[in-house]
Design a protein that fits this description.
Strand order of the largest sheet: 1-2-7-3-4-5-6
Structural class: alpha+beta
CATH superfamily of the largest domain: Umud Fragment, subunit A
Strand content: 15-25%
Order of helices and strands: HEEEEEEEHHH
């Protein structure tokens, strides 16, 4: 008899321990999932807000502007500026006309010919062609290191698949945590009575 009682109490203690660990894991999943969803929503809202107020994010693909803008960074471009607002020393983004946008520093402004002379900070010589004023996209305002890797990859099929997977994991973590929480079970019992 004592052995039966001991094994029952051991089983009950083990069940309580597993229950505590399970609740702990569910709580962590709920918190992490919620935090990731909040972070994702905040990042999306921030990017939309920046676009609405005139800032355009560009990913840095080459080292021509090192050490100012590192490869893999995002440079926020202020698109509200005009060519008249640009001075020697400003970093600008300009279009090459073939869906390519470059960010280089202005080393000269020719108002008569209406073009900029540009050069990458890491380059020894100026760019071969002057940049016509109409090709100006904007002026570099801020750089966010490493964030460009996300921006550059999110639009690829692999990046979209990873993004969809992570979103699914976040939603699953929050949902499972919510459905298996003790509060949810109490509400279910109250509805049945």
């Amino acid at each position: 008899m004592d052995n039966a009682k001991t094994s029952q109490s051991d089983a009950a203690a083990e069940h309580r321990t597993v229950g505590k660990i399970g609740r702990w894991i569910l709580n962590i999943c709920g918190v992490l999932g919620s935090a990731m969803l909040v972070l994702l929503i905040t990042a999306c809202a921030l990017l939309i807000t920046l676009r609405v107020i005139g800032f355009f994010p560009l990913g840095v693909l080459s080292g021509s502007m090192e050490p100012t803008y590192h490869v893999g960074s995002i440079v926020l471009i202020d698109t509200r500026v005009s060519a008249d607002d640009i001075a020697t020393g400003d970093a600008i983004a300009f279009s090459l006309g073939n869906d390519t946008t470059v960010t280089h520093r202005v080393i000269g402004v020719d108002k008569t010919s209406r073009h900029f002379i540009t050069q990458g900070d890491a380059n020894n010589t100026p760019d071969t062609a002057p940049v016509p004023f109409p090709n100006l996209v904007g002026k570099a305002a801020l750089s966010i290191p490493f964030a460009g890797y996300i921006l550059m990859n999110i639009y690829t099929p692999r990046g979209m698949a990873v993004g969809a997977f992570l979103l699914g994991v976040m939603i699953l973590m929050v949902t499972v945590s919510s459905l298996l929480s003790p509060k949810h079970k109490v509400r279910d019992r109250e509805r049945k009575t």
